[in-house]
Amino acid sequence: MTDESQQDGSEVRLAVDDAVTPLLGSELLNAEEAGQLLTSSPGRVVVWMGERGSGKTTLTARLYERQRLPGEDATFAGSRTLLAFEALLSQRLPVAGVSPTLADQSIRAADERNIHHLALIQGEERVNLLLADLPGALFRAIADNQLALSSIPLVRRADKLVLIVDGGRLRDPATRASVLTRVRQLLERLAADDLPHPDSDLALVVTKWDLVVEDAETLAYWQAREHQLAANVRELHADAEHVRVAAGAPASFPQDDGVGALRSWLLAPPGATPDPPVETQEWPDDAPEQTRGLRRRRT
Ligand SMILES: Nc1nc2c(ncn2[C@@H]2O[C@H](COP(=O)(O)OP(=O)(O)OP(=O)(O)O)[C@@H](O)[C@H]2O)c(=O)[nH]1
Ligand SMILES: [Mg+2]
What angle do CA 274, 277, 282 make, to 5 degrees? Predict the structure, then answer.
């Protein structure tokens, strides 16, 4: 990618020798390498949009980790960032992404190595997932209008944009309102930049769902607001998905962690509906909602 194309916010494009790709996959990919991969087989560029600590890296790690489990409906078909994934799992530390040098307002996301690659086979199809691990500070700055979305080419190039609600922060009465405000601000920024593109997908993902369901007061707070927020998301993108995920929950978490539903949505071609749609479902007045991965579609 040229400097010129970064400055005008044009899409991530690709023209890179295979030789550039690390053989052992110890490094993350940069945007050019990711793009080059997509020229040879189908794939999706995935961007988690969430604040610092909202669980983005955990989603990436868990998507990789899940393919080792028996009984999954998607099987592992390779990774150009295999050792980077393994390092992520062994350290359980966030992999360094873009340094949020907001001062110069010139984040060269396309030149940074911040993309995990995971190829999966679901049904007959092999799909490359390119998972951008961008730091949460970027999205705080975007929400605050300190930084333009157009300065992050990966966001403009994304096939799957994921708006994250940090379920953990919903537990704190002092921060929970600001979590929802941030998501609405990001929605406004997306709308201002005509994103997502008509051929891209958008999802609202509540992370750390285990922390929400285990606290009745937090669950009640979220239940009272979830429907409206999901409606706001669908105003931007009528087919927006809505998933609750507990990717980093302790092994003792008794419920489905929602990662399978998220993965199905990520693997589906943009614009496609992976499963038959389900009618919008209202929260019951009493018992906690147990079902994850509900498809909430505009009727
Ligand atoms: N209980 C619980 N904790 C989680 C879950 N997902 C993530 N966490 C924890 O939340 C913290 C932050 O997770 P990360 O995945 O590093 O968050 P991030 O969005 O990548 O953070 P930045 O890279 O700093 O923006 C870590 O301590 C995780 O273990 C979850 O589903 N349940
Ligand atoms: Mg991270």
Answer: 130
Residue 225 lies in a domain: yes
How many angstroms separate the alpha carbon of residue 107 from the centre of ligand 1?
23
Residue of 58, 183, 215, 256 with the most ligand 1 atoms within 8 Å of its CB, for mutation: 58
CATH number for the domain spanning 146: value is: 3.40.50.300
Other beta carbons within 10 angstroms of residue 172's beta carbon come to: 11
Number of domains in the chain: 1
**Is there a domain that residue 294 lies in?**
no
**56-66 vs 82-91: helix crossing angle, rounded to 10:** 110
- Which domain does 218 fall in, by range? 3-267
Say if 230 falls within a structural domain: yes
Q: How many CA atoms lie within 13 A of 197 on its CB side?
A: 12
Q: Which ligand is nearest to the CA of 54?
A: 1
Q: Provide the residue-wise pLDDT of the chain in tens; the chain has 299 residues.
A: 333 344 443 444 433 344 444 457 889 999 889 988 998 888 999 999 999 999 999 999 999 999 888 888 899 999 999 999 999 998 754 444 434 444 333 344 446 899 999 999 988 889 999 999 899 999 999 999 999 988 888 998 999 999 999 999 999 999 999 999 999 999 999 999 999 998 999 999 999 999 999 999 999 999 999 999 999 999 999 999 999 999 999 999 999 999 999 999 999 998 775 555 444 455 556 655 544 444 444 43
Query: Is residue 91 a part of any domain in this protein?
Result: yes
Closest atom, ligand 1, to C-alpha of 136: 25
Compute the distance from residue 118 Cα to the ligand 1 centre, in Å: 20
